[in-house]
Design a protein that fits this description.
The complex is a heterodimer.
Chain A: H1 2-37, H2 39-50, E1 51-57, E2 63-64, E3 70-82, H3 90-101, H4 105-112, E4 119-125, H5 127-135, E5 141-150, H6 158-161, H7 173-177, H8 179-182, E6 186-192, H9 204-209, E7 214-217, H10 221-237, E8 242-249, E9 254-261, H11 280-283, E10 285-286, H12 293-302, E11 310-312, E12 317-320, E13 323-326, E14 333-335, H13 336-341, H14 345-355, H15 357-366, H16 393-400, E15 407-408, H17 409-420, E16 424-426, E17 431-435, E18 441-444, E19 449-452, H18 456-468, E20 487-496, E21 503-516, E22 523-530, H19 538-557, E23 563-565, E24 579-581, E25 588-592
Parallel strand pairs in A: 2-7
Antiparallel strand pairs in A: 1-6, 2-3, 3-4, 3-5, 7-17, 8-9, 8-22, 10-15, 11-14, 12-13, 16-19, 17-18, 20-21, 21-22, 23-24
Chain B: H1 2-52, H2 55-64, E1 76-80
């Protein structure tokens, strides 16, 4: 009996041992399967519970002026989205959100009651608003980090800078042209979540590394503002349709201001007419009128004519075929100097006839007309300069005084700057450099010489003519600036009639282009006023604006006068100022006014 | 028994370490989130400073609130040197 009992117990023990061994073997095999054979799959499943992949995008780079003042920058913003199927009480949720976000609760409730998994509640709200919404801990409401483009100077240089649209993509201006440079980089990263699904660690450092590059422009925020303000006043004063004004450094081709009126606010671009978005200084061409005579004169001087070569100006009326060219005042014989000073159309025609259409065309092309300048703005027009084979006799005549040819403002100021720069045509510059998010220069743009258009001697002779054009009894006297030797040329071009042949009556473009000081030109300025109503001569409309822009810019840049005054310090009543040379020793001194109560 | 106690102790220690690690990760995450918010706020303030410094705004205030006017052409006066 005891033997039987022992045997039974022994068998049971053996069975239990066998069962344990089998269980252990089974566990071992299962462990091997989990830990070794399917390790990757189980690791992935476990990880997906507490981590997820996110696509993050870096902030868009800044647009800065030449002194690194912000013209365009990005702010952090939050986009609030919803999963309507996870919202238990749509009406209550809508009311709670509407109160903070100032939205229509009815519309929100409708969105939350929809039978889908995704709805955008509001885009690009401030982090402060987002914090208030987060504090409500509403189920089914989610937050996505985004960026909002902001232009702190509102409409300053709006057409040049442009703006970004949805998804931070550049739509106009430099924002569009340099989108790839400015745009932040995109990467996919793994982040961890806590038990409630909240993301624990988005690597801020990583986001900094993804920031787009900054662009430093040649524009000067102050000069841009002064130019825009003066242009606005001029357009309003003469009830004009619009206006353009550019300020350039002739020696380098750097644009310090590129103003346009009317303007728009890129922070709320949707509220403005699309026609205002384009940078008309680059995209639009106009007939420059008499400002083109300086280029005709330059071509003549290069062809062995001299400033004192005289032409018979037909007493104010000159017939070419069935057309009659007229001067505002009749003249008999005029030298090239006086043709420019008095802006004689007939004189310009006679010069063109003397040098021939091919020569005139060649020099206009060399000054950059009819070709894009390559300035860093989208949509540049080459203007219109027909082949000389297609020029009739009247075409040659008209082109010599700036009709029958169209140019862009950027071409015209580049050409005028070439005269100021001793005949050297520079490529206009708008972008100074591109800087990485770590502050390193990625690309530095240097002034580029295109070619020598005319000899320095010819350039000096043309400068003299342009200086005569702003002195007493000339057309540009209102551009004369006390203390400075100003060189300039007026232009008054009739505009082509819409829907009919020929030019419209009483619709003009008023232009003034010039530079100062004559010996060492620091700034070239161009003012174009489109369709002024109360007055229309370039000397009456654009010249005073030119003078104001020049005076303000010289004050700001501390460029001292290069001559002494005969008529006194204030030139309010002395529009034509006679210049005398600055004495080498002693003589004139300058000092700023500290009179308070003045802007 | 000693081994069981030792194993139990190790288990407790491991659990405590894991809990502490999670807690610290959470605190770091919250601190990072706060830092991120403050940096955003700093960026906002910088842009706001630029907006307040904009010439358009300052000139508007100077004209409308302080009654100042432009005086473009009298910013320089010319002094004639007195003969010795």
């Amino acid at each position: 009996m005891p033997d039987n009992a022992h045997m039974k117990i022994g068998r049971r023990i053996w069975l239990i041992q066998a069962a344990l061994v089998i269980t252990l073997i089974f566990l071992g095999v299962k462990s091997f399967e989990i830990q070794v054979l399917n390790a990757k799959e189980f690791s992935r499943r476990a990880e997906s519970g507490y981590s997820r992949h996110l696509t993050i995008k870096g902030e868009r780079g800044r647009i800065l002026d030449r002194h690194w003042s912000k013209l365009g920058a990005s702010l952090d913003a939050i986009t609030v989205t919803a999963d309507p199927l996870r919202i238990e009480t749509p009406v209550k949720t809508a009311q709670a959100l509407a109160e903070i976000l100032e939205l229509d609760p009815g519309e929100l409730a409708e969105k939350f009651s929809a039978d889908n998994r995704y709805a955008v509640v509001v885009e690009n709200i401030s982090p402060d608003h987002a914090r208030q919404v987060r504090a409500l801990t509403l189920p089914g409401i989610y937050f996505t980090k985004s960026f909002k483009r902001f232009y702190p100077n509102r409409d300053l240089a709006a057409q040049v800078i442009g703006f970004t649209g949805k998804d931070d993509i550049g739509l106009e201006g430099l924002e569009f042209k340099y989108n790839d440079v400015l745009d932040g980089k995109v990467v996919r990263i793994k982040v961890r979540r806590d038990g409630t699904g909240r993301i624990l660690d988005i690597d801020r450092k990583k986001q900094e590394e993804l920031r787009g590059n900054d662009m430093v422009l040649t524009l000067d925020r102050k000069i841009q503002f002064l130019t825009e303000t003066t242009l606005e006043q001029t357009v309003k004063q003469y009830q004009a349709k619009s206006g353009l004004a550019l300020v350039m450094r002739p020696a380098t081709g750097e644009l310090l201001a590129m103003a346009q009126y009317p303007r728009f606010n890129p922070n709320n671009y949707r509220e403005f007419d699309r026609a205002l978005f384009r940078n008309r200084a680059v995209t639009d061409a106009f007939e420059p009128g008499s400002t083109l005579k300086v280029f005709t004169a330059a071509a003549a001087l290069e062809q062995s004519l001299t400033p004192n070569s005289i032409f018979f100006c037909e007493n104010g009326q000159y017939r070419i075929g069935k057309y009659t060219v007229r001067d505002t005042h009749p003249h008999e014989w005029l030298s090239i100097n006086h043709i420019i000073a008095f802006s004689s159309n007939i004189g310009a025609v006679k010069i063109a006839e003397a040098i021939g259409k091919q020569t005139l065309h060649d020099y206009l092309t060399r000054f950059g007309f009819g070709e894009r300048t390559g300035v860093e703005c989208p949509g540049e027009t080459p203007g219109t300069l027909m082949s000389p084979d297609r020029w009739s006799r009247i075409d040659t005549g008209a082109i010599s005084f700036g009709q029958g040819i169209s140019v862009s403002a950027i071409q015209l100021i580049s050409g005028i700057s070439a005269i100021a720069n001793n005949g050297r045509l520079m490529k206009p510059m708008l972008v100074k450099k591109i800087v990485s998010n770590t502050g390193q220069d990625i690309q530095v743009f240097h002034p580029t010489l295109i070619h020598q258009v005319i000899s320095p001697q010819t350039a000096d002779q043309v400068k003299h003519m342009m200086a005569l054009a702003v002195q007493e009894k000339s057309t540009g006297t209102k551009a004369a600036l006390a203390g400075y030797s100003v060189c300039g040329k007026t232009g008054t071009a009739q505009k082509v009639a819409k829907g009919q042949a020929g030019y419209a009556k009483n619709i003009y473009t008023s232009v003034f282009a010039g530079f100062a000081p004559r010996q060492n030109p620091q700034l070239a300025v161009l003012v174009v006023v489109d369709e002024p109503r109360t007055k229309y001569y370039g000397g009456d409309v654009a010249a005073p604006a030119f003078k104001t822009i020049l005076a303000q810019s010289f004050n700001y840049l501390s460029i001292p006068p290069d001559g002494t005054l005969v008529a006194g310090a204030s030139d309010a009543k002395t529009p034509a100022v006679k210049m005398v040379k600055t004495p080498k020793k002693g003589g004139a001194m300058t000092t700023p006014v500290f009179e308070g109560e003045r802007l | 028994m000693l081994i069981i106690c030792l194993l139990f102790g190790v288990l407790l220690l491991h659990t405590w370490v894991r809990t502490e690690a999670t807690q610290i990760t959470l605190e770091i995450s919250l601190a990072q989130s706060r830092l991120s918010d403050l940096l955003s706020y700093q960026k906002e303030l910088t842009v706001e400073r630029d907006r307040l410094k904009s010439d358009d705004r300052i000139v508007h205030i100077a004209r409308s609130q302080l009654g100042l006017t432009d005086d473009v052409f009298n910013q320089t006066i010319y002094l004639k040197r007195e003969p010795h």
